[in-house]
Amino acid sequence: MRDLNAPLAGERLPLASSAASERDVMKHGLEQWTVLAENDQVRVLRFAPKKGAATPMHSHPATVVYVVKGGRVRIITPDGNAQDREYRSGTAFVRAAETHSDEALDDLDCVLVELKE
User: Fold this and answer.
1) Each residue of 37-83: pLDDT tens digit?
2) Where are the domains of the chain?
């Protein structure tokens, strides 16, 4: 039986207070970002941009990233430095908390598990 309080896969959810910062990526309402699940310990996001899609400046807490479909992303830090990152399909990594904007240089699909404090 389905828990009526549990979200449906792909449903956009209201943000918990710990995630509802001014730099929360979900405040932009962009189609490349979807909340897959959330509780008081983690928030699971799908990042599936098409080439050329951009996300304005935002922040993530410490995050586990799993790359479903690899590709390149240009990351721009608040001081304006840009770095092209290549993510390979089937890989996973842990990323420290960071603030950035991004632009997809290829189509890609990633699952991010943001760790809440």
Assistant:
1) 999 999 999 999 999 999 999 999 999 999 999 999 999 999 999 99
2) 25-115
CATH of domain 25-115: 2.60.120.10
Give the burial class of 1: count Cβ atoms within 10 A of its Cβ; 0-12 exposed, 13-18 middle, 19 or more buried: exposed
pLDDT per position as a tens digit, 18-40: 444 678 999 999 999 999 999 99
DSSP string, 27-94: GG--TTEEEEEE-SSEEEEEE-PPTT-EEEEEEE-SEEEEEEE-EEEEEE-TTS-EEEEEE-TT-EEE
Query: Which token pair is 54?
Result: 């951009």
Residue 64 has, within 13 A of its CA and on its CB side, a CA count of: 7
Inter-residue contact 45 to 69 (CB < 8 Å) = no
